[in-house]
Amino acid sequence: MRRSLIDLDDLSAHEIEYLFERTTAFERKAPSRLLDGVACVNMFFEQSTRTYTSFNLAELRLGAQVVNLAPKDLSLATKGETVEDTVITLAAMGVQVLVVRHPEAGFPKRLAMAFDGHVVNAGDGAHAHPTQALLDIFTLREEFNELRGLTVAIVGDVLHSRVAHSTMLGLIGLGVDVVLVGPECFLPTGHAIAGARIERDLDAVLEHAHALILLRIQRERFETMPLTDAEYVASYRLDHARLSRLRPQTIVMHPGPYNRGMELDDSVLEFAGWRYARQVMHGVYVRMAVLDFLVNGQR
Ligand code: CP
User: Fold this and answer.
1) Cross-strand pairs, 151
2) Is the whole-model pTM more than 0.85?
3) Average pLDDT for consecutive 10-residue bins of the chain (299 residues)?
4) Do domains 8-128+283-296 and 130-279 have the same CATH topology?
5) CA angle, 153 as apex, 161 and 139 as ends, to 5°?
6) Mutate to test the pocket of ligand 1, among 49, 129, 286 (most ligand atoms within 8 A of CB)
7) Residue nearest to atom 5 of ligand 1 (CA)
8) What residues does each domain of the chain span?
9) CA nearest ligand 1 atom 3, residue
10) Domain 8-128+283-296 grouped into CATH 3.40.50.1370
11) Which class would CATH give 130-279?
């Protein structure tokens, strides 16, 4: 089986450090054609703006041959072909990289077991989103340099967030004090907390956190909203009053898409510490680093 990236624990701390060095290098100078002639197929079974576009740009900037397969184009959708037979077919055409997003947790892993090539998980259900975690951690590194000892609050619908899962996995491994903040119905329990602290009161963490990572409520992952929007907003929306209680150097991040009026109001978008655009920009370079690493190995 070739090297794939399904979740952040597929990478050692040393490899994450290497990926960040490469990300910085790609950000500083024009990319070379490190994936010249490498065929990459992007299969997105769920909507995406950021991840889809940035993987496309990363592949094109590295000189790859890029094919985008929408679910409606796949024979497995209507003609009974299995996932396993689909990827065997793609490998026979010389496809080396599959980037996959799917609503089902575990789907990219299934592909990786069958595919003679590299699979990159671009988000599977509520399970994992490793490249988003890498770009989030890279953004924190750019800001603070040393992450050990920082307090990072991940705020909102943590339970259904694959981003929260992967990002906290990475941050805890790097010695960050991770606080999961939200109403009880949106907080994980048991082993899923993975060494993070739990806090139900956002106002209790504002003066201590070095960074807040806000999350969208993942309404597509549950049937009934367990509290009213007004109740959520009253306790968890970051607004002007709450921003004024942050430490001077605190930054605010969001993986996107963000919902104005729910987890944040417009004052956050004008806040000096709002880092969303940096995150999105880093997404292209991080994904270039990941693709180069998987296909060409560590230099
Ligand atoms: N952050 C993120 O995964 O956004 P998209 O769903 O637009 O890719």
Assistant:
1) 177
2) yes
3) 91 96 94 93 96 98 96 78 91 97 96 96 97 98 96 97 96 96 94 89 97 95 90 97 97 97 97 98 98 95
4) yes
5) 80
6) 49
7) 48
8) 8-128+283-296, 130-279
9) 51
10) yes
11) alpha beta
User: Other CB atoms closer than 10 Å to residue 270's CB: what's the count?
Assistant: 9
Atom 6 in ligand 1: residue holding the nearest Cα: 48
